[in-house]
Design brief:
Radius of gyration: 16 Å
Structural class: mainly beta
Number of strands: 13
Strand content: 35-45%
Strand order of the largest sheet: 3-2-10-11
Shape: globular
Helix content: under 10%
Length: about 170
């Protein structure tokens, strides 16, 4: 596979751009795939690494709606989801027992997004952890801090928002 072109988040637009991406996205827990798609969207916003939104059909493990919500000035009100992660997983069926650690509010979606983001209605986005997230087979790093949900890959160049000293960017 040829190297990907560098992506500099300082050149991403504001307001953010929503577009389809053909990249292969996977979310795994203990090497068990809990989400898998090549039919996602990404949001590119100034100073942020891409945030990926996966179709509901790509989610293989059960999610439970959380009471938590937040508001994005661009996309609207976000709904959050919980998932139970089994201590030891050998297959996707291990996620249906309800036994394990409940991870709260690390997955979100928009049930009624603003006009420019209607295509991601009910699509879900995962913070990059505690599970492993992959873009085209590359293990991603989480966007710095614990507020934003971007996925950092090796093609991201320059500093991104989220770490110390970047709050006002």
């Amino acid at each position: 596979m040829p190297p990907k072109a560098p992506l500099n988040p300082f050149t991403f637009p504001r307001p953010p751009l929503l577009e389809r991406t053909p990249r292969h996205l996977q979310v795994k827990w203990q090497d068990i795939v809990i989400a898998d798609t090549k039919d996602a969207f990404w949001v590119l916003e100034t100073t942020h690494p891409p945030t990926y939104y996966l179709p509901p059909s790509s989610i293989l493990a059960p999610l439970a709606k959380s009471s938590h919500s937040s508001f994005c000035e661009w996309k609207g009100r976000a709904t959050y989801w919980d998932i139970v992660l089994p201590k030891r997983a050998s297959s996707i069926e291990d996620f249906t027992t309800g036994k394990g650690e409940k991870v709260r509010n690390r997955i979100w979606s928009y049930e009624d997004p603003t006009e420019g983001f209607k295509p991601i209605k009910d699509y879900v986005s995962f913070y990059a952890g505690p599970w492993d997230c992959y873009v085209d087979g590359e293990l991603v790093k989480p966007q710095p801090g614990d507020f934003y949900g971007g996925w950092v890959t090796s093609e991201i160049v320059g500093q991104v928002k989220g770490g110390p000293g970047t709050w006002g960017w």
